[in-house]
Amino acid sequence: MTRSPRDLNDPSTDPFDVAADAAAVIAERTGVDHHDVALVLGSGWGQTADLIGETLATVDNADVPGFHAAAVAGHSGSMRSVAIGDTGRRALVFGTRTHFYEGRGVRSVVHGVRTAKAAGCSTIVLTNGCGGLNPAWAPGTPVLIRDHINLTAHSPIEGANFVDLTDLYTPRLRDLAREVDADLDEGVYVQFRGPHYETPAEVQMAKVIGGDLVGMSTSLEAIAARQVGLDVLGISLVTNLAAGISDQPLSHAEVLEAGQAAAERCGRLLADVVGRL
Predict the structure, then answer these.
(1) Which of 39, 56, 120, 140 is least surrounded, with the fewest CB atoms within 10 Å of its CB?
(2) 202 in a labelled binding site
(3) What is the uppermost EC class here (predicted)?
């Protein structure tokens, strides 16, 4: 039996072809053949898209090749085409992402990034909720990602394709974000596999090797974005202090609560940054 070409896990399928198929469906459903910037909204960031501009079209993930319904509470199972103020430009806003721990494969994890490129985007903003290693970063603090450490033992790049990751998180975009909010700090994001939270010993390991933030997303997407030539802005929302940094137990409810409390600041930050891109 011939497998569907939309099966990203079929080794005979070119994942970039599936991304092109997805972009074609998005163009049809949104009525525009080009988007300018993409945003991936992680835990705690779900309410921020409303502040970027008017939502002109909403597309259910299940209707787009290669995408799936949201698997995590606090994420939206749809994508939106949003007007960026009155600039005439469009943002493609993904209300959820596929996490590595879902077991769908790395191709599914980075499918949104590749679709954004196929849809015409030149910049992608990757957001997440994370644990902070710096006690000065209270829950609800946004932190720019300067660099990352990928502890998943996987890469989205297949074959002998040697992609330079120097300045992966575009310095110009970080500077732009600090023009919007001068109080923004920055740090190194460490991606673990998940879905369990890190142990205190693992958090200390992350600190020793140079990490400031720990989470379960973003780095694989950023690598895929660099491969296709997208500029990358990464922003973490510290939703809790990482295990062992404080004596409080970790919970996803805490992540959502911190995101709701910080929604206005984060939304304004994203709206202003996207408006200046």
Answers:
(1) 56
(2) no
(3) transferase
